[in-house]
Amino acid sequence: MNQPLAGDRNPQTRGVSLARVLAVTQGDRPFVNEMEGEFAKDAVAAMKGLETAASRGDTASARKYAHSLKGLAATADAVTLTDLATRAELAAQAGDLTSLTPLSAAIAPEVEAVAQGLREIWGETA
Amino acid sequence: MRVLIVDDDGMPRKMLARTLEQWGYEVVSAADGAQAWELFQNGSFGMIISDWMMPNLDGVQLCQRVREVQGRPYTYVILLTSRSDRESLVEALAAGADDFVAKPFDDQELHARIRSGERILELSHELARQMEQMAKANRCIKQINTQMTRDMQGLMRSLDAWIRQPSAKGKREPVVDLRDEVKQELRGELMTLIDQWISTLAPAPENSK
Predict the structure, then answer these.
(1) So what's the ipTM on this one?
(2) Cα B178 from Cα A31, distance rounded (Å)
(3) What is the pLDDT of residue B198?
(4) How many Å lie between the alpha carbon of A113 and the closest alpha carbon of chain B?
(5) CATH number among 3.40.50.1000, 3.40.50.2300, 3.40.50.300, 3.40.50.2000, domain B2-105
């Protein structure tokens, strides 16, 4: 039988709500771990892509990375990260590098915070 | 139903796959549009649920390719997207997308839209079955028509030959005899038509006797 996940007891941690994730995974710990790994891999890749694109002034690529990050964050119900990624996407779409650069910088620690939050919720580091 | 899901991000793709499997669908996953296109060409899918923005081949481009394929059962395409501006929706519809679901998807909404798609697919398949039946019936009618034309032409030639005989003038009975002779050569389904035709023959004029 699957052990209760930390998120079952405290689904709201660090701006991350995993009600949906937990509903889908139904306490399947290996699958939960897999999802956490997928999020970390994809979000870090998108974050780095966004940083590189922003530093090069490549707003088209920046928009794609921000869009991907927004989808990932929203899937994990990571509210703050979703908001930052949305603003970065809009800034990139508008070609607004002045806004994009600080947003990109703010996203990096938030990605790490969300990833950490997910690990805590899923009980991997508790 | 077999569903092809496409998303370049692993977490949403796997969560979608798990969700669909819990609903009883057979799921095949692709990590981008190009891989999905390969899978589509080599497999059979009732539905595609695809992310929009992806590298290599995006959701709209994938949809366009799927719609260009002829001779296969209809595939219902749902695009998962956070794009909601009017131009984007028009672009996707023009490419052949059937529906949209916002990312991240709401379970109940997605399930309802998939069921809606299934109903459309069922109607589409039923229409295809009926069209095939109609095509078969049409081929059958053409064969009968060909046969009837041939038989009627033969009958006309025979009657024409008889009419040209001076001895037949004013005699209706030979027509009946000739009918019986022709009947033996005609298919059974033509008998009613022939009888009806003969019954419409006007009686011979009195002065022709």
Answers:
(1) 0.75
(2) 85
(3) 65
(4) 17
(5) 3.40.50.2300
Does B8 score more than 60 pLDDT? yes
Rg (CA), chain A: 15
- Residue B53 at interface with chain A, using a CB cutoff of 8 Å: yes
Q: Is B108 on the interface with A (CB under 8 A)?
A: no
Global pTM value: 0.72
B157-207 confidence digits (pLDDT tens): 777 777 677 776 666 666 666 666 666 666 565 666 666 666 666 555 555
* Residue A1 maps to a domain: no
For the ranges A12-21, B86-95, B159-168, the lowest mean pLDDT is seen at A12-21
Long-range contact pairs involving A56-60 (C-beta distance under 8 Å, separation at least 24): A57/A97, A59/A92, A59/A93, A59/A95, A59/A97, A59/A100, A60/A92
Helix, strand and coil in chain A, % to nearest 5: 75, 5, 20
B31–A contact, CB cutoff 8 A: no
